[in-house]
Amino acid sequence: MTFEERIEALTARHEALTMNLELLSRGLETMRSNSERDGENIRALARIAEVHERRLTSLEGGEQ
């Protein structure tokens, strides 16, 4: 393998690694965004459950 071929191979590998890092970065950003959205949804469900629990307690004649 000549010096030029080695440089060419290293350049191709560098480009492939760069693309992989970009894809990984996008994937991590998507995961972070999804996790934040999941957290918001879970908090909303917890609030709904609390409201329903208070309502049921009230309907059963308990304290509010």
Provide the fold topology.
Elements: H1 3-59
Kindly describe this structure.
The relative contact order is 0.06. It is built from 1 helix and no strands. By secondary structure, it is mainly alpha-helical.
Helix/strand-derived category reads mainly alpha
Overall geometry: rod-shaped
Task: Specify the helix fraction band.
Answer: over 70%
Whole-number mean pLDDT: 95
- Nearest-angstrom radius of gyration? 27 Å
N-to-C CA distance? 81 Å
Written as H for each helix and E for each strand, in order along the chain, the element string is H
Largest sheet: none
**Amount of beta strand:** under 5%
Q: What's the short version?
A:
89% of the residues lie in helices and 0% in strands. The chain is built from 1 helix and no strands.
Question: Characteristics of this structure?
Answer:
0% strand; rod-shaped; mainly alpha; 1 helix
